[in-house]
Amino acid sequence: MTNSWTDIRNTDLVVIMGGNAAEAHPCGFKWVTEAKANRGAKLIVVDPRFTRSASVADFYAPIRQGSDIAFLLGVIKYCIDNDKVQWDYVKAFTNAAYILKEGFAYSDGLFTGYDAEKREYDRSTWDYEIGEDGYVLVDETLQNPRCVWNMLKEHIAVYTPEMVERICGTPKDKFLKVAEMISECSARDKTMTSMYALGWTQHSKGSQNIRSMAMLQLILGNIGVRGGGMNALRGHSNIQGLTDIGLMSNLIPGYLNIPTEREVDYATYISSRGFKPLRPNQMSYWQNYSKFFVSFQKAMWGSAATPENDFAYHYLPKLDLPAYDILRAFEMMDQGQMHGYFCQGFNPLLSFPDRGKITRSLGKLKFLVVIDPLETETSRFWENHGTFNDVDTASIQTEVYQLPSTCFAEDEGALVNSGRWLQWHWAAQNPPGEAKHDTWIMAQLYLRLKKLYQEEGGKFPDAILNLHWPYADPEDPKPDELAREMNGYAVTDLRDPNDPTKVLLEAGKQVAGFGVLRDDGSTACGCWIYSGCFNENGNNMARRDNTDPDATGAYPNWTFSWPANRRILYNRASADLDGKAWDPTRKLIEWNGEKWEGYDVPDIAVTAKPREVGPFIMNPEGQSRLFTRGMMRDGPFPAHYEPFESPVVNVVAPAVRGNPVARVFESDRQSFGDAEEFPYAATSYRLTEHFHYWTKHVWVNAVLQPEFFVEISEELASEKGIDKGGWCRVWNKRGSVHAKAVVTKRIQPLICDGKPVHIVGIPLHWGFTGAAKNGMGPNSLTPFVGDANIETPEFKAFLVNIERSDGPASA
Amino acid sequence: MNMEISRRSFLKGAGAGVAATTIGAFGFGEAEAAFVAELRPYKLAGTTETRNTCPYCSVACGVIIYSKGDIAQGNAVAMHLEGDVDHPTNRGTLCPKGAALLDFIKSETRLTKPKVRRAGSDKFEEISWNEALDNIARLMKDDRDANFIERNMDGVQVNRWTTTGFLAASATTNETAFLTYKAVRSTGIVAFDNQARV
């Protein structure tokens, strides 16, 4: 989230699209209710199903899953055509006026530079014209036909209300009503918030779904303001934290990158991360990259990271591929190229696509280690459960370790909520039986591996042997020690660069924040964006002061919000060019003639003069991007692409299947189906009574929703002779599941390009362990393909067939 | 424990007080005492309140867990859980999942012992922590030494281990995540991921 849950109270319009907050985030949704009741805010829901969010919406519009980009670009076109643009914001805070390089173009669904064989673009033309002074050429009048604004208008011209109806199945009048309501938020005193979740991310173009809405929010002037923003409703309690700390193939904590093998040494690595400003006076904050990186290396390898060895640069692995993401990992497993696998609190047998392939792949491992507080299907993938896990146990040679860990009630530490609040919590009970804290388990695995390398030697032991391990009890590091490491500390005395006799911070003291980090090895910091969370003031994440001056929703002294306890990102954009709030009733920070002050920690140097320094300090432009240069693999503007399995052809680019640069493994291509054989558009979702695959272990929730079902319209049920509450079978080339049918008015057929499209809804909470009835789920059916940029699997849009059945043999 | 909020301290004190007194101290007669003896005792009496957050979605509602026993003694057991009314986001409310969290903590399918399933076997067997951890470390080292790539074809140091992967949790603390990061990265594992991608 750019904003926070409690900030939603400040909005005028909530758009829930790509999510279902009322059911999946019920207690956060209360802030929507609050805004409706107290401010007269309106709620729009756009979803293939009439969800419980829709049931309390002021306006609901149906949409076919996987067509959101066409819808959103249609709304952008509506706003531009009807002059519903926050012009001062767009001109001052976006790159609308930037001139694009000659040679960049788009036609027939493809941008310039496409290589069909590699499924990749040469992105060299996707850039700005740079002037002789090294800065981007701009046309503030927006007259130049090659400025971003005019190129955008041309790019989206095709998304008329009629085209939106053809692609999305949203009736034109409903689309126009939504567009009209949204467009009103271009006024300076009207703000809209976007609440989205996996309904946008789990597509082969998930990143561009979100980008489309971000562009719309910029055009309306809604980023950086109270009640506005792009608000990702994250699915798990600490998925935000795990992402921040970079537990991903290609990340270093704080959104730094693991080097690629083309970055042969530290000098090469850092040279491409200088991020020189593209416009005069801009902060281009990533210019500090080396300080964050070197401080991270010091936290990792302590005294073994020296200027002489480039701060242990070679201790990090170098990638030969963009990432060894989960899809690639299981493809490698299936090909016999991966032998060992750890699942720490993760149940891939139910949560990864194409379950048949997941089962087959796990069975090719030499060893699997599952660390979890609960039984999981993954840890028992080798066990035969009839229809629900039909495997040949004796032939599976994988050795499986199941290690009992603790749950939230037994551990201490911080979880990061969607609004970036690091909330410390405390243990209320001791672990059951022999269960152990995850920290102890990880320490034990590391220390035992280290001992083996000490005793026996082996391949490149340096990074293991020299790992910085400064814990009072090395066998069992404590949460506060780890939090202090992430905050960062002075390794040696930090002296004033202007007066070296003056010590600013003594060696061993906690740094106050990331502003004091250095790239000479004198500071260590595990995760720079968290710096300030546990400084010499103590554990700021443990703060529980719930006062909220002037009821802005900021709660500035409640726990700690990264970065720097900032509650709303890009908050400088809440004020106009001269630093006055766009909307005086929604003041956030303002320029008082000397500095920025207000309700939040300014997202800009406090003395940075308005009209000089732009609000988007992380960008070398200082401004936000309606055009993203070569930063995304599938285009500098979003474009409509159908899901890989779609009931209709792409009407704006009939020759293109799926996202043209999404990676497809050869072995998976043959398991894609087409609409002739599998005519129904399926989607997956959660229920309010369940949380993924955890709550089927909870007796109360198992009682509330005991059994797997699929949801279909009355029309489809009657066409197929499926009874309400009767059995049906849903299948495609990847799998087949039996389910009870919920026949409902909540799902209605859509008319797309003149043809009816039936939707099949498949919730995802059942397996073969726990208190609920055994059942299957959508991942038996979903395709093994991910988003072109980050490989999030396409769980939300795929094809199936459906028929009446007698139920599973062993139900 | 973070108990600076006065209402909480009051409640805690009041709870302990109820446990320590009998109703007779208020001067009731025998009949009342007999009646009172039949009453169900206040179940939160003598419990410790602990602030925690719901482990499910990222609204991260504040919860208060009431437990009996003492963590330091190793015998603390949660016996009640409710929404934290002082929490700015949820203001004491919980959803159908959060409201049932006590059953999650006490689920019959919680794991309590390390186990191993041998190749081809149809069952899990109990194993000691020591043996399990030693076995896993050995499996890791053998696979790493056999497959670690120190240099690529161009002679560049790449130090990657591609044949073992690690999936990290999405509900563990930041502190677990950071320790996991350190341990996993130091080995050169590149198939490193978490639920964020899914």
TrEMBL record, chain A:
<keyword id="KW-0479">Metal-binding</keyword>
<keyword id="KW-0712">Selenocysteine</keyword>
<dbReference type="GO" id="GO:0008863">
    <property type="term" value="F:formate dehydrogenase (NAD+) activity"/>
</dbReference>
<keyword id="KW-0411">Iron-sulfur</keyword>
<protein>
    <submittedName>
        <fullName>Formate dehydrogenase major subunit</fullName>
    </submittedName>
</protein>
<dbReference type="GO" id="GO:0030151">
    <property type="term" value="F:molybdenum ion binding"/>
</dbReference>
<dbReference type="InterPro" id="IPR006657">
    <property type="entry name" value="MoPterin_dinucl-bd_dom"/>
</dbReference>
<keyword id="KW-0560">Oxidoreductase</keyword>
<dbReference type="Pfam" id="PF01568">
    <property type="entry name" value="Molydop_binding"/>
</dbReference>
<keyword id="KW-0004">4Fe-4S</keyword>
<dbReference type="GO" id="GO:0051539">
    <property type="term" value="F:4 iron, 4 sulfur cluster binding"/>
</dbReference>
<dbReference type="GO" id="GO:0047111">
    <property type="term" value="F:formate dehydrogenase (cytochrome-c-553) activity"/>
</dbReference>
<dbReference type="GO" id="GO:0042597">
    <property type="term" value="C:periplasmic space"/>
</dbReference>
<dbReference type="InterPro" id="IPR006656">
    <property type="entry name" value="Mopterin_OxRdtase"/>
</dbReference>
<dbReference type="InterPro" id="IPR006443">
    <property type="entry name" value="Formate-DH-alph_fdnG"/>
</dbReference>
<comment type="similarity">
    <text>Belongs to the prokaryotic molybdopterin-containing oxidoreductase family.</text>
</comment>
<feature type="domain" description="Molybdopterin dinucleotide-binding">
    <location>
        <begin position="682"/>
        <end position="798"/>
    </location>
</feature>
<keyword id="KW-0574">Periplasm</keyword>
<dbReference type="Pfam" id="PF00384">
    <property type="entry name" value="Molybdopterin"/>
</dbReference>
<feature type="domain" description="Molybdopterin oxidoreductase">
    <location>
        <begin position="1"/>
        <end position="377"/>
    </location>
</feature>
<keyword id="KW-0408">Iron</keyword>
<keyword id="KW-0732">Signal</keyword>
From TrEMBL, chain B:
<dbReference type="GO" id="GO:0030151">
    <property type="term" value="F:molybdenum ion binding"/>
</dbReference>
<dbReference type="GO" id="GO:0016491">
    <property type="term" value="F:oxidoreductase activity"/>
</dbReference>
<dbReference type="InterPro" id="IPR006311">
    <property type="entry name" value="TAT_signal"/>
</dbReference>
<dbReference type="GO" id="GO:0009061">
    <property type="term" value="P:anaerobic respiration"/>
</dbReference>
<keyword id="KW-0560">Oxidoreductase</keyword>
<comment type="similarity">
    <text>Belongs to the prokaryotic molybdopterin-containing oxidoreductase family.</text>
</comment>
<keyword id="KW-0004">4Fe-4S</keyword>
<keyword id="KW-0408">Iron</keyword>
<dbReference type="Pfam" id="PF10518">
    <property type="entry name" value="TAT_signal"/>
</dbReference>
<keyword id="KW-0411">Iron-sulfur</keyword>
<dbReference type="InterPro" id="IPR006963">
    <property type="entry name" value="Mopterin_OxRdtase_4Fe-4S_dom"/>
</dbReference>
<dbReference type="GO" id="GO:0051539">
    <property type="term" value="F:4 iron, 4 sulfur cluster binding"/>
</dbReference>
<protein>
    <submittedName>
        <fullName>Formate dehydrogenase major subunit</fullName>
    </submittedName>
</protein>
<feature type="domain" description="4Fe-4S Mo/W bis-MGD-type">
    <location>
        <begin position="47"/>
        <end position="109"/>
    </location>
</feature>
<dbReference type="InterPro" id="IPR027467">
    <property type="entry name" value="MopterinOxRdtase_cofactor_BS"/>
</dbReference>
<keyword id="KW-0500">Molybdenum</keyword>
<dbReference type="Pfam" id="PF00384">
    <property type="entry name" value="Molybdopterin"/>
</dbReference>
<dbReference type="InterPro" id="IPR006656">
    <property type="entry name" value="Mopterin_OxRdtase"/>
</dbReference>
<dbReference type="GO" id="GO:0030313">
    <property type="term" value="C:cell envelope"/>
</dbReference>
<dbReference type="GO" id="GO:0009055">
    <property type="term" value="F:electron transfer activity"/>
</dbReference>
<dbReference type="Pfam" id="PF04879">
    <property type="entry name" value="Molybdop_Fe4S4"/>
</dbReference>
<keyword id="KW-0479">Metal-binding</keyword>
